[in-house]
Amino acid sequence: MKVKLTKLFIACSMMIGLAAPMSVSAAAKTYTISPTSKPYKGKMTNFSTYNKYTRQYYVLRSYLEQFEKAGGGTLILKKGTYTIPKTLYVPSNVTIRLKSGAKILKGTKTGTKKIGPNKTLFQVVKPSISLKSGVRGKYDGEKNITFIGEGTAIIDLNFELDTIAIVAGHNRNIKIQNIHFQNLKQGHFVEMDATDTASITENEFVNSKASVNKNKEAINLDTPDKVTKGWNHPWSKYDKTPNRNIKIVGNLFKNLDRAIGTHKYSEGKYHENILIQSNTIDTMREAPIRVMNWKNAVIENNTIKNVVNGSGTFRGIFASGAINPTFRENYFENVARPIGFMPWRNSDPGSVYKVTYNTISPANIAALKTNRIKKTKENFIRINYIYNVFDRGTDKIYFQ
Questions:
Q1: Is the entire prediction scored with pTM above 0.90?
Q2: Of the four, 31, 142, 214, 253, which is 20 to 30 A from 330 by CA?
């Protein structure tokens, strides 16, 4: 929305092997709805739970279930507010397009005791298996799914506790573009696990209330692992599959705990080819980018400023378990420590896993020197090599 994609983004996309544009079944249809629309062909209107609080949920659900039967389709939401109290499940080959002025609002009421509200708006799993156990593993789930906005399109989590806008897991080819996400409270705007090839571009992620540990990311990249307890969706096999080929480009992140990151790692599992490029990250309560068990990550040309108002020892990019990290030409302002590398061990759930260490090459060091700083407490990058030791075994990499 705020930042246009660059030639550099295109080049890096080719370098990390992102997939070709998504395709949809030739038989797929396009439907357009408004806030006053009825469900597809009048379905679900006879449900005892169909009322003024749930009507818009059932409208969207009816089309998504039809898309599963048809092999895909496009749903266009016209201007207006769509209040959704329960989870919507998205099958393969589906595009959800929000016209300018369309807002999806997290609902809090269902108007009935028979069903209650859920903590997620969208889950990328087809409706027919959404309530089954252990049916999705590796990258064998739904694919070719797009959430896209035109002009000013909004997804508003309404500051509802622990809510998530989009949950993607065991998927391929996911696209999230040009949507204004707002009003988070101790959840994530996007939770992504076990996904192969995704682009999150030209969105805005703004305004959250502080979580308990001030570490809830706008975009969370994790593994489905019962040991770490960071993923709680029964349709998953919890097979610890990492993400790969994820590009996060040209977004705005503002007034949040964190912008992008991983909470906990699964031992021996690495998220691969994460590209974070040309984003603006402003006013964070913790390290804006938390790298944890990422391999061949590229973080470049981002503007990162006002991290805890430059106080304490907070870092702009904080990395543990980084293998061959290329962090270059980023700009840091009003950040205590621009970049830090440190061995790490999960706390509490996941603490059974061994300490994870960074592997940094001379080429990685050369790239680190190209970053720029202003108004920082430290004018160098810290690399700690020994777990939980900070007074020795440390390199300081100074900028060019």
A1: yes
A2: 214
